[in-house]
Amino acid sequence: MSEQTIALVTGANKGIGYEIAAGLGALGWRVGVGARDRRRRDAAVEKLRAAGTDAFGVPLDVADDASVAAAAELVADRAGGLDVLVNNAAITGGMPQTPTTVDPATVREVVETNVIGVVRVTNAMLPLLRASASPRIVNMSSSVGSLALQTTPGVDMGVVPVAYLASKTFLNAVTVQYAKELGGTGILVNSGCPGFTATDLNAFQGVRTPRQGAAVAIRLATLPADGPTGGFFDDGGSVPW
Questions:
Q1: What is the pTM assigned to this prediction?
Q2: 5-53 pLDDT tens trace
Q3: Which of 13, 125, 149, 163 has its CA 20 to 30 A from that of 47?
Q4: DSSP codes joined into one string, 17-57
């Protein structure tokens, strides 16, 4: 393993993912910018490098087995290992998305990226993470996926696309199961909620900046060895499942 801390952030060419990469880079880490779009990926890497981050591009489509396998090989070759994986890439599937009208194909597409994509990338990167002295996995989720909040009387979470909402509930369940299986290995696995952040995911209607939204991921990526695992957090602390 390299003495320099190595991170891979999926969906890092823009928005919250870019700011996560920038924040980790500011710590002196080497950061892999995972993204499908070559032009946007290259532009993000160039911008990060101009700001002083040791960044490198990682062609990565989380919904494609071959792409993910190639990305794991590239990270191993270019960086010599991996310490932190931030699963940030996600889609909403478009609006409107009510339970009675949603196209099942939309649900399938959203889950493929937001949940199965996380499993695919995590499992591909696990051999590298297991070799790290301080491995961390951060899954970017959302409070809209909290069943506790969704069912609390008086809590209005607004109109949320059903496929996206369910995918984040599903992702939280996956996070818990990874934490259970990897307990005792030193790999800490947590979900993070960035808050209602202005990105193209919500047509920039959010009230938080991408940099603010990235803060929880940076905190979970830098947890000490005795930090929590299997938790769900935002800037204010724990979020109910």
A1: 0.94
A2: 999 999 999 999 999 999 999 999 999 999 999 999 999 999 999 999 9
A3: 125
A4: HHHHHHHHHTTT-EEEEEES-HHHHHHHHHHHHHTT-EEEE
